[in-house]
Structure prediction request, 640 residues.
Amino acid sequence: MELTYKSLNGWSCEDARELYGIRNWGSGYFDISEKGEVVVNLSNGEHSASFSLMDIVSGLRARGVSLPVLLRFGDILDARIKLLNETFAKAINEAYYQGAYRAVYPIKVNQQQQVVEEITRFGRRYHHGLEAGSKAELTAALAYMHDPEAFIICNGYKDEEFIDLALYGLKMGLQTIIVVEMPSELRLILDRAAHIGVRPRIGIRARLTAKGSGRWTESSGDRSVFGLNTAQIIDAVDELRQRNSLDCLQMLHCHLGSQIPSIRTIRSGVSEAVRIYANLVREGAKMGLLDVGGGLAVDYDGSHTNFASSSNYSLEEYCADIVEVVASICDETGVSHPCLITESGRATVAYYSVLLFNILDACRIETHALPEQLPKDAHELLHNLWEIGQNLSAKNLQESYNDAVYYRDEIRELFTRGDISLREQALGEQIFWHIAVRIARETRQLKYVPEELRGLDNALADIYYGNFSVFQSLPDAWAIDQLFPVMPIHRLNEPPKRSAILADCTCDSDGKLDCFIDLHDVRHTLPVHEFRPNEEYILGVFLVGAYQETLGDLHNLFGDTNVVSIRVGPDAQMGYTAEIHGDSVADVLSYVEYDPKSMAERFRMLAETAVQSGRITAEERRIVTEAYHASLRGYTYFES
Ligand code: PLP
Prediction:
């Protein structure tokens, strides 16, 4: 579908910035250069530099790394960790809050080894800890988190092995806190601690009654599946008292859900948590730590609202509000200010990664002029449709649309009954699309567009085929309709004249992106540039560092993409600091229990049988076998 802009000649990068909202969601990390390319702004403390994503791609090509590729920007991660810790420190300072702040990173948000390793390294100066929600995550945490002042918060349901590991960590000098998620866990923790000979540090996860807002509403409130309700908390306190272990209860934990777009929800959840905290102090528990979980939202669409993909508060507001709510309730109830802990995952890692992929092909609805006349023997219904095209005007758009749809459907019916030929049916479709495009063009001039005509532009959108898998790289876009900023990374000094949806290469009807960010609503098409078959056209999906990498699956056996880390090097040069090759075909086949070696042997036998039966020559056998081996070694995505 062709897009028009008021002043084509005056198109500038500023228009592109506005169209794609990059300054709204980019948080200063991403922008558009005067050359019309997306740039990433990086700073390592000593040096700052802007790098064009197109230059990064050229550098990767020269090094033999092909698209699709996931770029990770370590300097952005470093900056996010700094920002979170320093904003809390500032809020604490300004409110004369008496407790400290400690962040922990929930490993589940992006479990990749490189991510966890970098977080522990960049976060060391702030004693930024880790949150482990399973035995495997705790095993990773114990290998990477050796800072005796940072916390390792153990959430999730726990068996004896999980509890023992956490207790051994504590015995060795780490600050592992075991959070009781189920009433039955408490006894097990106390028994295992007695057996191992260590005084456990215990937290209780409270099931708050405050209901979250946004996408994860169901993970909070009375129906939440996690945590203890107030009656169960009191039982736990009694059990601890009975076993002379109230000194072990040191933390209250809560988590309202991820991506909470409204600050009011956060305030009311934290208020409820502090009330419980203060009561636990009154009951005689040692306490000292208040963990308010995750939920700090990312403004994916840049609208700064309480829409599910946005956030109506800034980081400053988030920190100041939490500090203020905790301080005021503690002061009112005469309880010392606890050390505050947050488990911000999404807001820490989302900006860190960008997915880049190339467009393989584009398909558009071809519209032809209305034929001057129809063949004499054309079916009557075709004549009726043609006349709608003849008489179409700004005054009868809705009526013409209704009639055109009616006749198009009738013509399709005739074809299925065998009453008209394929050629006649094609002519009917051609006339129909001609009418639809004209109606869509006219409706753009209208102040009020009738309901039924509103979706017409979307129905006429082009399809751009991208070299990526939604299921592997953007699972939340498919599973929970999460919106991510998507845009071309070059040609931005030209107006994007087409509007398109993006299909991935999985050949699954759900394998597409057809919801895009918008300041006021959700767009169903993306403005893109004309696809030129012999020229590269590259799009980026931004803010994909949280939750996307390990939730992805192997649909159609498209595997992990290449991953490349970029940092500002000495002299502000671009440094390609790490490369992780994406899965090969043999890799993904082995994940689903194939043995690539025996597959190659089976293929060799097939080829040899073909030689024996005279279908191919021995020389051809060498060629086909080499092709098979090359395919096993190759990338699962399209390679040029
Ligand atoms: N803490 C817990 C217990 C969680 O379940 C989650 C994820 O939902 C988080 C922290 C991370 O939340 P977010 O990514 O919103 O910061």
In short: The chain has a mean pLDDT of 94. The first helix runs from residue 13 to 20.
